[in-house]
Design a protein that fits this description.
alpha/beta, Rossmann fold, 5-stranded parallel beta sheet, globular, binds magnesium ion
Length: about 270
């Protein structure tokens, strides 16, 4: 009896001692290690800074040319994306590395309105304003993020951080059947303005011709429009996420990190 009693006590103690370990394994959020290198690069490399300055220096030059050549009846404007174009959300991406299931995390992050201006973005926006060129922010942030987005832009010092210069996801994106499409919103801006420049970190920020990534990851469309880059389209670097990811995952949702890594590796060109 005594040995049975001790066996039960021992077994209980073992179960108790195992529990935290088991819980840790079961409840630990999946990691997102694939983001580590890209976020490290985005936050720490001087090359990232240089690329943003390069983009906005080029944008300034193109804006000057457009102003000089202006023979439009409509006022000039430019369209900029917000995330990873004007505002730096890499702290949120960093948070995903150890918690890939951070589903509500994005809204928590944007509600803080604390994203910093990206290198060169603020002085470029101020320059455009000084030249009388309006800025329209076309973003795939949701309608319920409008207030915090305008607050963040204004707090960071950006001009035109007003309701009539922000077009969020629900405004006109559904007309094209693609909820992320910016086509309808660009058309809306074009009704009363001549868009002379578009700036973004995603090809979808520029034209609908880049929306279909199913053919060679969208590279055909880039080839066909190569003359526009550095001209009317200013592309900024974002290795952390983007529309370029989906074709790499064969358009499959809900893959875990291991499955994603496997697919990514299968699509590498090797020596
Ligand atoms: Mg963006």
């Amino acid at each position: 009896m005594k040995s049975t009693f001790y066996s039960i006590v021992l077994a209980s103690l073992l179960m108790l001692s195992c529990k935290p370990t088991q819980n840790t394994v079961v409840t630990a959020p999946p990691s997102h290690d694939k983001l580590l290198m890209s976020v490290a690069w985005y936050q720490n490399s001087a090359e990232m800074m240089a690329l943003y300055y390069q983009g906005f220096n080029l944008a300034t030059q193109r804006l000057d040319e457009a102003i000089k050549a202006d023979n439009q009846s409509k006022p000039l404007a430019m369209v900029v994306d917000i995330d990873e174009t004007m505002l730096d959300n890499s702290p949120f991406e960093a948070s995903l590395i150890n918690n890939a299931d951070n589903l509500s995390g994005w809204y928590n992050w944007t509600s803080k309105a604390s994203a910093l201006a990206l290198p060169g973005s603020l002085s470029f926006a101020e320059y455009a304003q000084s030249k009388g060129v309006e800025i329209f922010y076309i973003s795939n942030r949701d309608d319920n993020e409008r207030d915090v987005t305008l607050k963040n832009l204004a707090d960071a010092g950006f001009p035109y951080a007003t309701d009539d210069h922000l077009l969020t996801k629900s405004d006109l994106s559904y007309s094209s059947g693609n909820t992320s499409s910016k086509v309808g919103r660009r058309a809306k801006v074009s009704e009363n303005h001549e868009i002379v420049l578009l700036i973004g970190d995603n090809l979808n920020d520029f034209s609908e011709v880049f929306e279909d990534r199913s053919i060679n990851n969208g590279k055909e469309a880039v080839l066909k429009n190569m003359d526009q880059f550095g001209k009317k389209f200013i592309v900024l670097p974002n290795p952390m996420y983007g529309a370029w990811e989906k074709p790499l995952y064969d358009y499959r949702d809900g893959l875990d990190d291991a499955a994603k890594s496997k697919l990514l590796k299968s699509k590498l060109r090797n020596e």
